[in-house]
Amino acid sequence: MSIRRGLFLGRFQPYHNGHHAVIEQIASEVDELIIGIGSAQWSHSFDNPFTAGERVLMVRRAIKHLPITTYVLPIEDIQRNSLYVAHIKTIVPPFSVVYSNNPLIRRLFEEEGIPVRRTEMVERELYWGVEIRRRMVNGEPWEQLVPPAVTEVLREINGLERLRQVTASDAVVPQDLRGGGSA
Amino acid sequence: MSIRRGLFLGRFQPYHNGHHAVIEQIASEVDELIIGIGSAQWSHSFDNPFTAGERVLMVRRAIKHLPITTYVLPIEDIQRNSLYVAHIKTIVPPFSVVYSNNPLIRRLFEEEGIPVRRTEMVERELYWGVEIRRRMVNGEPWEQLVPPAVTEVLREINGLERLRQVTASDAVVPQDLRGGGSA
Amino acid sequence: MSIRRGLFLGRFQPYHNGHHAVIEQIASEVDELIIGIGSAQWSHSFDNPFTAGERVLMVRRAIKHLPITTYVLPIEDIQRNSLYVAHIKTIVPPFSVVYSNNPLIRRLFEEEGIPVRRTEMVERELYWGVEIRRRMVNGEPWEQLVPPAVTEVLREINGLERLRQVTASDAVVPQDLRGGGSA
Amino acid sequence: MSIRRGLFLGRFQPYHNGHHAVIEQIASEVDELIIGIGSAQWSHSFDNPFTAGERVLMVRRAIKHLPITTYVLPIEDIQRNSLYVAHIKTIVPPFSVVYSNNPLIRRLFEEEGIPVRRTEMVERELYWGVEIRRRMVNGEPWEQLVPPAVTEVLREINGLERLRQVTASDAVVPQDLRGGGSA
Amino acid sequence: MSIRRGLFLGRFQPYHNGHHAVIEQIASEVDELIIGIGSAQWSHSFDNPFTAGERVLMVRRAIKHLPITTYVLPIEDIQRNSLYVAHIKTIVPPFSVVYSNNPLIRRLFEEEGIPVRRTEMVERELYWGVEIRRRMVNGEPWEQLVPPAVTEVLREINGLERLRQVTASDAVVPQDLRGGGSA
Amino acid sequence: MSIRRGLFLGRFQPYHNGHHAVIEQIASEVDELIIGIGSAQWSHSFDNPFTAGERVLMVRRAIKHLPITTYVLPIEDIQRNSLYVAHIKTIVPPFSVVYSNNPLIRRLFEEEGIPVRRTEMVERELYWGVEIRRRMVNGEPWEQLVPPAVTEVLREINGLERLRQVTASDAVVPQDLRGGGSA
Question: Strand, coil or helix: what is B127?
Fold first, then answer.
């Protein structure tokens, strides 16, 4: 395969300027870029408010100016670390390099002999996702932390209202609400 | 559908007077009532000590005096919020209104265009389930918090002995015991 | 949602001229087009020789000339018909019309109140997929039945060799080989 | 347990006079009767056209005249024979006897030491379900083969229209349609 | 890894002289041998009558004379071909060569760069499993086709009685009995 | 069954001297011993760093001196307590006694009428697994807490390097890293 195709993984809850800077950097190093939307099956919680399809929409609109071919693909969690790389290799086009700073992700790909490169964004990425959702719930300013296309999609899908409701009206701490309405 | 059929969801670990008061209230507003027993696949833990079948027995006996047709049906967790409403619609007869105070449950049904009504019982329901199990484990009085039929069923199935044993003999805090007997 | 976004579903084993004609037709009727690659988790069999990622590659290259925004997204089978529509709605961006001639697919979306339109291609599509794979296995001409981009991808991934091997060296009839090498 | 509680399993696609005769017979031998609706997760196919909830409705209405307590409970297939009995014991109230003529079902319960009794209905039950659906698809008379309550429910849920559509307009033979609309 | 560890896969329903000859051959070529018992989760059907644990017992007793270290390990089907090799690599100790004549198995390991060798037994292995079970059901002689240890285990677990019962009393053709006792 | 076959369950992350002492004790009480490796599907995390196959290797090498027949078998978590015993009975050869101090494990087997015996090792077993992994991550001495065979296997599979990397380079606390590399 002579095309250099890179893979970048994230949950994008929501896609924000931290992701954006990294992706623009990677785009200058590869011929084609696969963006895997992880935890695709989760939604409607504080940790994962938006569906995979909604996140596809955010990312696609935010990166449409990139000069290279991109693939934005939902990836369901497989919940078995030892199958994670095989799972991803099945869902996305062939790739020759993975971009990640996550030690587990790095290890899993390295054990399969796939090159992994670091990105500039280290710790702040994790902070950003939680912080942006916290601001959304509490009515504090967040728009400047995401590309304008994301704000637009969130308005179209009524995203903030959902985030606030699933986080509960009177508490920021998300609850475990599995299986019903009462204990 | 001219029959007004309502849906009420709970885990009923165990069914208690809090549930009972709400269900008697709802029963006066609908023609038929579906009671969904959530987290049906879990059992033998402090959070979910009783099987779905045992909970069916508790609820059925406790509500047999109600003057309307009732459906008491186990509902397994599906663990994907976005499929939860479709899952429930498949398992239970058609319904036209859901009774719930849980913000997530409310949101999920509302996104599908299904009417949701509040019940009188707000916060105390959650408290009750945990509190009753705590009392059972510690040998404190709990019978007055549940309908007599529930006490009867718990005696038939040896429920307290199981709850105490799975909670561990020397600790109230439940342990994560998955996969075996030693670390 | 003022954007008319359409959904077209297929397995694309492989993407062929029958799909291509339909997609070009649909592309003239909508603002944006979602192409869902069904049975995404299957591969390495006569019925489903190519992985989801390989099929993403085929479709993306074959339709890159289309003047509208397209989303090419893998969709795993969920194996419960009653959850199929909810599952798809989660994985792909919001859409307002589905294009399908399959009676089951049509029924499932119609029960959820989603408009479904017929396409020109009726029976022949089913025939094409099987016929093309049969030709590939038997060494008969097939390139004229698919867009040039598909031939290119199949060469890159060594697709014919895999198809022939999984179909077995001495029989066209695919075998059920689950779980091991001997009975 | 001094209550004799019996278990009868079926798919009830739809509930018909063959099931009805057996259930009336069993009802005269036990104190309480559990009716398990098997293959609860399947629907929208020729083999399993109706959802679990719709089948709950059929059975409940058809047997409401029985003088004993009944439990009509959906049971999802677990697809591992060796877990089937444990799965059922979890979902339904405790029972002391199973009614079945199916050799596999009989074997599985017998290996767990649970008594199994034969019913009068031997081979014809299998025939009835398929035959009734075949008649529904082809517009031949079928109402006399089911209790009036079933005809009523099928009309309420538009059951025949669904059965005909999922069976395809031009063929009685059901197709395997998994994963999308084209091959 | 300086130890040459080989992997051989089978379903062993039951373990027979065809398997035995191949395993004795392989044992002379490797330092250690892993025998994977495929389709481990299935049992109680004509195709897969015996549980994984029962098959472990058969194989272990039949090969206890081998002079090398052996690992007899159940392997559940994963039902996604693209994850099969990663799944096996997780469940069994590291291995450097696979023995198989099955074209799919060969292909899957070869795509992962793992060497695969042919065994002497080609077609007859498939025949043997079905033929032996057919003879067991019909009361024809079969003991000479399996090692004595297998006959011994089958007697201990009452294996023939189960096989005959799940195959149905009046038909050799296995039925699809999923989900309940009536159609 | 005249053979006394015992079952002992553990996760063995890693196999250590605490397990070893208990197993040598049990080996003096039974004819054959089954060692079930629980949580078989998990790996590459601080809690479960090693794959099932790697743990099979550790245990097998460490107990090869035992004078009785042993079965070392991976057991995947089934995540439904009520099916746990049926699941295990399927995967392993028939057994007549279980050795466990875990109250949940004891309860589950006792409810199925299977005898359970206590072992000498009470609380310390849990401590040992966590403590050994903590020492490995922090570079403190741990070899004296495991049999020499385990040290050997860990060296062969590069086990410490993996444990350290998945635990993250700058923190002992394991992170939840599911689904991707950024929030």
Answer: helix
Nearest CA in chain F to B165: F103
C112 pLDDT band, cuts 50/70/90, is very high
pLDDT tens-digit readout, F7-35: 999 999 999 999 999 999 999 999 999 99
CATH number of the domain within which B22 lies: 3.40.50.620
Whether D52 sits inside 8 A of B1 (CB atoms) is no
Q: Confidence band (pLDDT; 50, 70, 90) for E165?
A: very high
Nearest Cα to E14, choosing from E131, E156, E166, E165? E131
The pLDDT of residue F108 is above 70: yes
Edge to edge, the sheet with strand A69-74 lists A69-74, A32-37, A5-10, A97-99, A116-117
In contact, B51 and B154? CB cutoff 8 Å: no
Judged by a CB distance cut-off of 8 A, whether residue D52 touches chain F is no
* Top mean-pLDDT range of C127-131, D37-41, F121-125: D37-41
Q: What is the ipTM of this complex?
A: 0.90
C74 domain-assigned: yes
User: SS3 for B120?
Assistant: coil
3-state SS string over D144-179?
Answer: HHCCHHHHHHHHHCCHHHHHHHHCCCCCCCCCCCCC
Q: For F31-58, write each residue's pLDDT tens digit.
A: 999 999 999 999 999 999 999 999 999 9
Q: Does B96 touch chain D (CB under 8 A)?
A: no
Q: Lowest mean pLDDT: which of A167-176, B46-55, E75-84, E164-173?
A: A167-176
Total number of domains constituting chain A: 1
The sign of the torsion formed by the CA atoms of E7, E9, E14, E16 equals negative
Dihedral (C-alpha) A140, A145, A148, A154: value to the nearest 10 degrees?
Answer: -50
Helix (H, G, I), strand (E, B) or coil at D73: strand
Instruction: Report the relative pairing of strands B116-117 and C69-74 from DSSP bridges.
Output: unpaired
Q: Is the pLDDT of residue D179 over 50?
A: no
Alpha helices in chain C (DSSP H): 17-27, 52-62, 84-91, 103-111, 124-138, 148-156, 159-166
Residue E177 lies in a domain: no
Instruction: Indicate yes or no: CB of A104 within 8 angstroms of CB of F51.
Output: no
pTM, full prediction: 0.92
Any CB–CB contact under 8 A between E169 and chain D?
A: yes
Helical segments of C112-174, H only: 124-138, 148-156, 159-166
Q: Chain D closest CA to C38's CA: distance in Å? A: 4
Rounded to 10°, the helix B159-166/B148-156 angle is 70
Q: Is the minimum CB–CB distance between E129 and chain C shorter than 8 Å?
A: yes
pLDDT value of residue C168: 75
In terms of residue numbers, what domain contains F143? Answer: 5-166
Sequence-separated (6 or more) residues with CB below 8 Å from residue F148: none
> What tokens does A102 get?
């996550």
Q: What pLDDT does residue E126 have?
A: 53
Tell me the C-alpha distance between C28 and C30, whole Å.
6
DSSP chain F: --S-EEEEEE--TT--HHHHHHHHHHHTT-SEEEEEE-STT--SSSSS-S-HHHHHHHHHHHTTT-SSEEEEEE----S-GGGHHHHHHHHS---SEEE---HHHHHHHHHTT--EE--S--SHHHHHHHHHHHHHHHT---GGGS-HHHHHHHHHTTHHHHHHHHT-TT-SSPP--TTSS--
Cis geometry, peptide bond prior to residue F14 (ω within 30 degrees of 0) = yes
Does residue F175 lie in a domain region?
no
A177: nearest Cα among D78, E153, B79: B79
* Residues of chain F neighbouring A127 (CB-CB closer than 8 A): 183
Q: What is the pLDDT of residue C37?
A: 98
Cβ-contact A27, A67 below 8 angstroms: yes
Residue B30 one-letter amino acid: V
Q: Is residue D171 part of a domain?
A: no
> What letter would DSSP give residue B44?
S
